[in-house]
User: Fold this.
Amino acid sequence: MKILCAGPTSIDEEVMELMGKSLTNPDIDPEYEKIHRRVERKISKLLKTEATSFIMLGEGMIGLEAAICNLVEAGDRVLVLNNGVFGAGFADFVKFYDGVPQIYEDDFRRGFNIEKLKEFLAKDHDFKVATMVHCETPSGITNDVKSICNLLHSYGILTVVDTVSGMGGEDFDFDDYKVDIALGGSQKCISAPTGLTLVTISEDAKKAIANRKKPVPSYYMNFLNYYDYSDGFAFPYTMNENLTYALDLALDKLFEKDSIALHKKYAEVTRKIFEDAGFELYAKDSRSNTLTAVMVPEGFIAEDILEALRKKGILISKGAGDIFEKVFRIGHMGNNISYENFLELFEKLDEVFKELGIKTKISLKKEFEELMKK
Assistant:
């Protein structure tokens, strides 16, 4: 089965093979810590920073909650920037830790309008923390982290950015963007196995955690246990060495190519093919380079297309939330990206659309072949 969904992605065979090797005991072997710290530095390198990065054992969602758990205390106001399904999710975490979320909502089919946000903040900027999603996978939008976080930083607001679906596929300069906590996942553009959250944290965020009125109300999610430990143990719990080795090699493979340019190329080709074929893209601007969300033609639902493609050996994604059956999504993401994969995808889509009676203005496969020659 070819995986061309919006993540998790397919995984390189060498990465999977390395994951199967057991080399040491991470609790007691000092050599493992050296390997682990090296991988953490590679995460920082990916975000063009010398800031501290660390790895949490758990899928990316644990990092989103952990960021709020560490920064937010009772009564703290948190600005939750929402222009997609995952943006609003931060509000629930804020409530869990007795913070006060203020949801700022913008057009779900466009990136955040920075001028509108400026007007809002000019009137109300008394927030300790602001949260946002870099790449909203349900809608295929990549938000302008640099402009937004620099604006928030000018008001002294700490910024938390979910870049789980952007890290490694979209440009991200942690220092230049003025981000305080960036949260990534192993299973998207990096194409390592699911199970690790990647955290990069600024000195300002560390100070805020150190100056809390009350201790962080968690052990497993307490960031201090990852970068400010003093009990003789390098990690707060037993790390998964196999996942770390797989992540290490996946990062090396990512650094071997111009990953940002590669994602951009396949995104532009994919968007042009669907638009030229007569489809409407869900995102009207700020379109993501890691996935494309396409509106399902009237009279059909996403499952019609997904089911037909599954029978031909290809997995893609539906939408999420209110657009669950209204869009289908192609993940041009990480190890999914190859000429052969996308040639087959467009060939099979030509067949599926013909079988379903969905008319297209062009052959998707032929246009892909022509565009890739340029």
Q: What stands out?
A: The two ends are 29 Å apart (CA to CA). The chain has a mean pLDDT of 96. The longest helix spans residues 259-276.
